[in-house]
Design brief:
The protein is an alpha/beta fold. Helices cover about 45% and strands about 15% of the residues. The protein contains 9 helices and 7 strands; from the N terminus they run βαβαβαβααβαβαααβ. The chain has helices at about 15-25, 35-45, 60-75, 95-105, 110-125, 145-165, 185-190, 190-200, 210-220; strands at about 5-10, 30-35, 50-55, 80, 130, 170-175, 230-235. The relative contact order is 0.14.
Length: about 250
């Protein structure tokens, strides 16, 4: 059997980097895709069996070139993880159309473009797609009109992919992370917000990037061979506890 492979977008940091590391632990070859050249090349230099590819996933031409390059480097595409995304929070009335489009073009258009471009290769390998949404696509909250809407659309897009691509042996699933203890989150979350999240999450803590990555890797594995069109909320139970947090309403 040939060595398993994967493409991970948004691979330079956070959940994408953690997913890359889990795949490497599984001895996969990984194409690390990101538009942040400096961070991507630095992280790739510290790892074996990876191929860094610069790409803005919102640009159709760059995406087409990325898939071609990934196939050249990897030989085949067994898994595509659409993780690249931007978080831009603000009130509805202050969200300009340009701001709305910046979120949509990466979070939603990027998932569509990368998946579409990869379909021929995924047909050959009977591979899989895992799209990264967010708990914000399932439960409304303030300041997330663009972000939450984009992630809700990703969840539905996943179901469309599963329904249409299943006959070719391609599986498509979605992961919706809840609050994750990233460097960025810890830099911007006040103690009040941290305490509110802990109170609202049944497991009483943030998740880790690695915990989300393990769910992604499971969905890409043969252990999930009969799982498609599904959403897994990796959120410590957050979705089950209601809508909104008082600390996030201002």
């Amino acid at each position: 059997m040939s060595q398993k492979t994967a493409i991970v977008t948004g691979a330079a940091r956070g959940i994408g980097l953690a997913t890359t590391d889990v795949f490497l632990d599984e001895r996969r070859l990984v194409a690390m895709v990101d538009r942040d050249a400096d961070v991507l090349l630095t992280e790739a230099a510290d790892r074996e069996n990876v191929f860094p590819i610069l790409c803005d996933v919102s640009d159709p031409e760059q995406v087409s070139q990325m898939i071609t390059e990934a196939l050249d480097k990897l030989g085949q595409i067994d898994a595509l993880v659409n993780n690249a995304g931007v978080a831009d929070f603000g009130p509805i009335e202050d969200t300009s159309f340009d701001r709305w489009r910046r979120v949509m073009e990466t979070n939603l258009d990027g998932v569509f473009l990368c998946s579409q471009a990869a379909i021929p290769a995924l047909k050959d390998s009977q591979g899989c797609i895992v799209n990264i949404a967010s708990i914000s696509g399932l439960r409304a909250s303030t300041l997330r009109v663009a972000y939450g809407t984009s992630k809700a659309a990703v969840i539905h897009l996943t179901q469309q992919q599963a329904a249409e691509l299943g006959e070719f042996g391609i599986r498509a699933n979605c992961v919706a992370p809840g609050p994750v203890r990233t460097k960025l989150a810890m830099a911007v979350h006040t103690q009040e917000i941290i305490d509110a999240y802990h109170d609202a999450i049944p497991l009483n803590r943030y998740g880790s990037e690695r915990e989300i990555a393990e769910v992604i890797a499971f969905l890409c594995s043969d252990k999930a061979s009969f799982v498609t069109g599904q959403l897994i909320s990796a959120d410590g139970g957050f979705e089950s506890t209601g809508i909104g947090l008082p600390a996030l309403r201002t």
